[in-house]
Specification:
With about 240 residues, the chain is mainly β. The chain has 1 helix and 18 strands. The chain starts with 10 loop residues before the first helix and ends in a 5-residue tail after the last strand. The relative contact order is 0.13.
Length: about 240
């Protein structure tokens, strides 16, 4: 029996076929490599931290943004940068690097934008500008403790502000302990007739109240001793 394998290919045609095959393989490899090197499409932005609170003139917060693909994974794309904007620069400003700084007390938002995609975070600015005591002056009677003096924190607009725990620590002092003393809780007690100044301090903020101490009255049968201090007209 005679085996038949068909006509033998010439060396020239065989070489051309191998070259074409190799060329096609190269094209396929390049195509796959090119697709693998393309970054995923950015469909959303995520800003961290998710909200900003600023309570000091010198405070600032750096925001970072992550570009996200449709499946939620981060996209490494350095070719396009986001732009930053504040909805109200009178409350907070933001620079090209995403650093937020306070301008005035209030609420606003900062937005990061990439082409037609954007994300925002809320920003609240609470500037502690001064302390306020119940009145500019008060009168007590020697030997009779007052109620604890209330301290109020105000912003630059004169609006009440609730401080953080670390900012709410108030220390008290009497200018003349021989006339009156004051406890760490703000309770004033007259020692002897006279006048002095009681000062409340919280960080760099300070408030004062002029104190007059009246002498203790001579005991009178059946007459109760005074138990509460008298305040001058309250501040506006």
């Amino acid at each position: 029996m005679r085996a038949f394998f068909g006509p033998l290919a010439s060396p020239a045609s065989l070489s051309a076929s191998l070259s074409a095959s190799r060329s096609g393989l190269a094209v396929a490899v390049l195509a796959v490599t090119g697709l693998a090197g393309c970054p995923a499409k950015v469909v959303s932005l995520e800003i961290a931290p998710p909200k900003v609170e600023l309570r000091q003139d010198t405070a600032s917060k750096k925001l970072t943004v992550t570009k996200k693909a449709e499946d939620g994974t981060a996209v490494e794309d350095d070719e396009k940068t986001v732009t930053w904007a504040s909805a109200d620069p009178a409350i907070a400003t933001v620079d090209a690097n995403g650093t937020v700084k306070p301008a005035g007390s209030g609420k606003t938002k900062v937005t990061a934008t990439l082409d037609t995609i954007s994300a925002s975070v809320p920003v609240e600015v609470l500037l502690l500008k001064r302390l306020q005591l119940p009145a500019p002056a008060m009168v007590v009677t020697a030997g009779v403790p007052s109620e604890a003096l209330a301290v109020q924190f105000l912003n630059e607009k004169g609006e009440p502000v609730t401080p953080d725990a670390k900012d709410a620590v108030v220390s008290w002092a009497s200018a003349d302990a021989a006339v009156a003393t004051v406890t760490p809780q703000g309770v004033v007690q007259g020692v002897a007739a006279g006048s002095t100044m009681i000062t409340a301090t919280a960080g760099e903020l300070k408030a004062e109240i002029n104190l007059t101490v009246n002498p203790a009255p001579a005991p009178v049968d059946g007459a109760p001793a005074p138990t509460t201090p008298r305040f001058a007209s309250a501040r506006g």
